[in-house]
Amino acid sequence: MNCRTICPSPGIFGAAALRVLGFPPLIFDLEADNDTDHVVAIFKVRGHWGAIAKSNFTGCRYREPAYRTLRELALSYFNTYFNLRFERTLRRYSRPVNLVRFDRLNWMASEKPIWFIAEHLCEIPHIALFPRAVAKNLTRVDPRTVRAEMVGHRKKR
User: Fold this and answer.
1) For residues 121 and 97, is the Cβ–Cβ distance under 8 A?
2) What pTM value is reported for the model?
3) DSSP element (H, E) containing 9
4) What is the DSSP string of 35-74?
């Protein structure tokens, strides 16, 4: 699997915060085509998954713990996961990664870059959300949804 553009820091920060609160430091990767992947901190309450995420797009943030499966949780991001060409881009998700596996590398307190976590996410298998034939027939996001999702979007100067 080729490594895609990925921004893991907010998801990793969320996992660290969850650990401090007594949850396992779990993340999963939402993998996109023609777009940036989204790393999300995930947690489980009473058998249901929730997520903590940061994004410039309003619909790609927090999720209440109301999803029975990780697939349901990943799909909850689908409709508002798009690129600046208005293409719906979310295609796959990873299984949970427990960041305890990186404790020996001091991931929570290191002042050095922690790209080893992003590299790990690029190497692990991802699960398709739907068949490729479905992706070929997806409609573009309408301009009204784009405007709503981009409220407060940080523009490059």
Assistant:
1) yes
2) 0.90
3) helix 9-20
4) S-EEEEEEEEETTEEEEE---SSGGGS-EEEEESSHHHHH
